[in-house]
Amino acid sequence: MKDLTWDVAIIEVVVTEVVAAAVVVRNGILVAEVIAKTKVVVVVVVVVVVVEVVVLVVVVVVVVVVVVVVVVVVVVVVVVVVVVVVVVVVVLVVVVVEVVVVVVVVVVVVVVVVVVVVVVVVVVVVVVEEVVVVVVEVVIIRRKKFVEIHGRLHQACDDYEEEKLSTTDLLRTISHINALGPSTAVRHV
Length: 189
Known about the structure:
Layout: H1 2-161, H2 167-180, H3 183-188
Helix pairs in contact: 1-2
């Protein structure tokens, strides 16, 4: 019985150790499985985190690129608008300057034409005045001469009628008077 008790005790110890070993082995497998699963989970989590970081970096890069593109487009649009405004202002200034130049040229031409017309009118008036003065003087002189000749001829004729002059003296007087002035006076007499 003693041997049997010993054997039972040994069996109990062996069974206990086997069970403990089995539990340890089982726990080890469980721990290994947990570790393996944990590794997978950690790897998955790391992969997910890396993917999220990469996605975040890509999103940030895309946002930065979009912002840069928008800023470049805005700057280009502003530059184009400024250039267009400057061109329009320059064109307007050129047009205004051309209009002012044309107006100044027209005014200068009008002033020159007016001055030329005034000078021509003044010259014509002066010339006409001189001509009129000369003509009037000539007419007055001729009229005086005519009156003088006419008077002398009448006097000569009267003297002839009164027999103060002979026919020869009368003809000599008429010839002399005729040489001094227009023949119209002689014809008139």
